[in-house]
Amino acid sequence: MSSSISKKVSAALLVFALVATTAGCLKSPEEKYEAYMASGKEYMEKGDFGAALIEFKNAARTKSTEAEPFYQIALCNDRRGQAQEAIVAVQQAVKLDPNHVEANLLLARYMVQMGGSDILPQAEELINGVLADERNNSEALFVLAATRARLGSAEDAERLLQEALRNTPEHLQSSMALARLKLNEGKPKEAEDILKKAVDSASNKSEAKIALGQFYLGQNRDADAQKEFEQILSEDSKFGPALLGLGMLYLKQGEKDKAEDIYKRASELEGELYLPLYGQVLMLNGKEDEGIAEFERLVKEHPKDRALRTRLITAYVQTDHIAEAEKLLDQVIADTPNDADARLQRAEVYRRTNKLPKAQEDLAAALEYRPNSHQAHFLLAKVYGELGDSRLQRQELDEALRINPEYLLARLELAQALLRGASATPQSAIDLLNEAPESQRNTAPVVAARIWAHIALKQYTDARKELDKVSPDVRADNPEFLLQEGMLQSLAGNYAAARPYLEKSLEKNPRDLRALNALAGTYAAENKEAVAISTVREHAAKYPNDAQMQISLANWYIRAKYIDEAEKAYQAAVKAGDPSRDATVMLARIYVDRHELERADKLLTDALQESSTNANVLLMRASVRDGLGNADGAIADYRAVVERNPENYVALNNLAYLLAARKSDLEEALKYAQQAKEIAPAVVQPGQPGVAEIDDTLGWVFYLRGVYASAVVHLRASAEANPKNPIVQYHLAMAHAKNGDVAAGRRALEAGLQIDPNLPEAAEARKVLGAAN
Q1: 174 near 141, Cβ under 8 Å?
Q2: Cβ proximity of 711 and 743 under 8 Å
């Protein structure tokens, strides 16, 4: 071919490309919108909700004032089990079009499912708005029936469901709801007849047969359930719900191999919901290697499916294949450094394996690529929580909520953080929870969190009122509400009445230390310490590799002064891999009490090899090194804590005291002591320095600097708050003497000598007072 012909062909191709590109660019917003909506609906029909979600989001960006794409986004999230995201989208749809019937009904459904009793009237108002225009709308009648049932009016609910079925006999959800009502009334035969009639009336008999099969499954009529599922599959071997029903039946019967075969068939169907099923059942059946292999195959076939990758990473982590999880994520990040999702996943892997600095690096990178990632701020808050930095933890949670006020996990975590520690502010937690979006304000998790805040404020009557608003069936099945009932009974002195609730809560959530400790606490309150310890010991024996469980047992031993048993339990917690390092710190305290300072130092130093920034471990080692006479090492540890958390008043106070002892660093010592005084709360946890100790440090620094009047002010305040501390009395005696009040100095000296006359500070105080005469 000649060069001229080649040039002509190239030019022609270029013109074609430009025309094609221009044609694409010339699509009107309306055409783009319609294309995105049509594509999204095609994906929805195939069950590929992830792909559909992308299309509907594109449509929403193209025409942000249209309600329909937001409604479709809500449906996609609903199908994927992402309730909070669905609620946000459907609220936007209703906001854009208050007359969007389907959106109103979906929003009302969520309000009925997740809201408290006080939100149900709002749901009813929405439904009645639909029924005003469409009285025969069976979907609206169905949702209204659900509302009435939640309000305790089963008779109204039944009447409305029957009306819905008269209007639309094939409305399957109404038949299923009516059958459930009959079951609740103890009328299984009537429930069965309703579902059989639904099969006869249904436009899609397979779906109705699924409902009947599930009814039989719930009634332990396995043969009848199997008959229904197999009959559907004989007509359509790829009907997913029937395969799932049959698989569930086999799992129930312990027929693991048959269940695996069925779920394998289901996983070959179209739709993102079916893809992971075979891998999941393999993991469930304990075939972890095969399950992981299946997820690895799926990830290889669908490399861009981040949901599948997440399942594989989760499987790796659950089975302690941490190296494989890191390797996969390392490869993803090497290929695509700006994959924020991979960064978040690797950060979570690092966090779980206590590689907190590495987790921070990934989260910082994720925020660089995605600055408004509320998930990144949430994970960063978790990292700071494990580092013991409550200030930064709250700050990151607050930022996550600022970015996404609908992010319920962050709101709940922040509420819990506001209830913890010496600086707890329970009223702030209540205010935070009351600021939740209306759709969340009366959901079970928010109500439970509000009850805890009332309990923290000792507002037991308010806590009881909140708990009584929760429907009895929800309370009976929710371990959090069961725990709260037990706690309120216990706080009222009804220990025997509290135990059944606490036991049931613990049965539903066996690793909940709150329930375990509350249960043991009911015995301790009755002076049955041995029974309390036995309760914790027997439960902890079931979880020998649960570090927090072993720490709880050790704490009960400490309470009973069973130090040797406590030591063994703390050692078990350390061996189990306690990421908080609380067990390490407590074990070191036991060694310190035995004057085994070198042993404590080695234990803490070993822990810092893996967790170099853990503030509690650094603080403990600093104290140990101070006791060993290693002032430089102690100062270095306190500096490391302050550098990490400038508001750690414990480290600030102790650092100031050690620097003052050098006498060459008095300006720096004064700075740190003043910061500690500004930050320290009025009420502190046992074992931590409070305002009295900090006043002693500050007064002593002033004394060493020759500012005796200021020294007297702070040392007197410390002595008044803590009159049994002899060192404070000796410091005060010296300050009075130097300030010209020898008589006051002698009184302080005598007070100190009565407490402990053998301290080095006693001799120093005598010398100063002698020189003042």
Answers
A1: yes
A2: no
Q: What is the pLDDT of residues 79-123, one digit of tens each?
A: 887 887 888 899 999 999 998 989 988 888 888 877 666 677 888
Beta-carbon contacts of residue 225 (< 8 Å; ≥ 6 apart): 213, 214, 216, 217, 245, 249
In whole angstroms, give the CA distance from residue 517 to residue 498: 13
pLDDT digits (tens, 9 = 90+) for 497-548: 999 999 999 999 999 999 999 999 999 999 999 999 999 999 999 999 899 9
End-to-end CA distance of the chain: 117
591 contacts: CB under 8 Å, gap ≥ 6: 597, 599, 600, 603
Q: Taking Cα atoms as reference points, which of 535, 530, 524, 460 lies closest to residue 495?
A: 524
Tens-place pLDDT, residues 702-761: 999 999 999 999 999 999 988 999 999 999 999 999 999 999 999 999 999 999 999 999
pTM: 0.65
Distance CA 158, CA 156 (A): 5
DSSP string, 683-749: S--TTS--HHHHHHHHHHHHHHHT-HHHHHHHHHHHHHH-TT-HHHHHHHHHHHHHTT-HHHHHHHH
Q: What's the burial of 18, exposed, middle or buried (CB within 10 Å: 0-12/13-18/19+)?
A: exposed
Q: Is 556 exposed, middle or buried, given 0-12, 13-18 or 19+ CB atoms closer than 10 A?
A: buried
Q: From CA 103, how far away is CA 409, in angstroms rounded?
A: 25
Q: Checking phi first, is residue 186 left (phi over 0); if not, alpha (psi -120 to 50) or beta?
A: left
Q: By C-alpha distance, which of 642, 702, 636 is closest to 669?
A: 702
